[in-house]
Amino acid sequence: MSDQKSSYGEPVEEPTPVDDVVGRAHEGLAEAEAAQRDAVGDAPASDDVPAPASDDAPPADAAPEPAPADDPWDSAEATSLGYEAPAPAPAADTAVYESPAAAAYEPTAETVVAAPVVTPSEPFDTAASRPTQEPPVAEAAVVAAPLAPQPIFVQAPEAPRPRGNRAAAGAIGLVASLAFAVLLFAVWLVLAAISGDLTADNVSTVALAALGSWVLWVPVVVFFIAFWLLGAIINRGRWGAWVIFGLLVGFASWGGYLLGILFQAQFWSITASQGAALMEQHVLAPLAIAAFIIGRELTIWFGAWAASRGKRVTELNVEAQREYERTLEAGPQLVQQ
């Protein structure tokens, strides 16, 4: 209260004795209890139902606030000095004590201070009695690190597989074998005409006998197998290889003719000496020599066809390899859709 008096320019008086403060505190408490009874009388009585809990209600163990001391301000004196008395504070259910009187009041062990009662109609404001909470510490902002660029895995292009010429050599061998059969059959008819076995009357008979003979078809089959094996070995080789190794196909055709003679004679029903004598009789037969020559020549000419295709396949393989190398040098490219 000394601060209030100094604000009006009056000298500060000595604080009120402790006995007067205690007495006035009891009077304030009595007035507060009377106001409480009046408020409770207006509200519906309910002894069993507790007052609703409020966030602003004071804790059970909170210390009661001291009653305010009487203002020693003398209104008559203030009026004589030209000052107006301050307006009285509005009455409340609970007395509010000023800090100087509260500081001067020190209750002893014999002093009993009643805790203020909060009515449901006017809840007690404990905002001032609550300890000041520290402001919440703002959490440190988590700054997300920039995402590193993710690697993009691209499947490397596969190396081109070199094309071969073996299948083409086999197909060309079928055509060559058909030509071999036609030429060998023609030579057969010519030799039969020269020997007198073929006449105008028995042409059909001799021709059908030749077409149904092992001697004609076994050399054809052997020629095809030899031609295809040679083509598989040479593959994309040059024509010179066909010219040189065509001799092997000619010998295979010649051996095919002798094998056809054995099949024609049913070698499983003859003795070894008979088979040897039969081989000696046909080893240099005109038809055997014709099979050798035809097989040799057809290998040369049809080998040129196979070599030509092999050269073209080689060029395609080289171009595919170059394209593959250019793709590797260029690296992966992103395609925008």
Write up this protein:
- By secondary structure, the protein is mostly helical.
- It has two domains: 2-40 and 56-104, no CATH class; 166-329, no CATH class.
- The chain is built from ten helices and no strands.
- The two termini are 85 Å apart.
- Percentage beta strand: under 5%
The chain-level structural class is mainly alpha
Globular, elongated, flat, extended or rod-shaped: what is the shape? rod-shaped
Query: What is the alpha-carbon Rg in Å?
Result: 65 Å
Helix content: 40-55%
The total number of structural domains is: 2
Q: Report the order of strands and helices.
A: HHHHHHHHHH
N-end to C-end Cα span: 85 Å
The count of DSSP E runs of length 2 or more, i.e. the number of strands, is 0
Mean of pLDDT: 73
What characterizes the major β-sheet? none
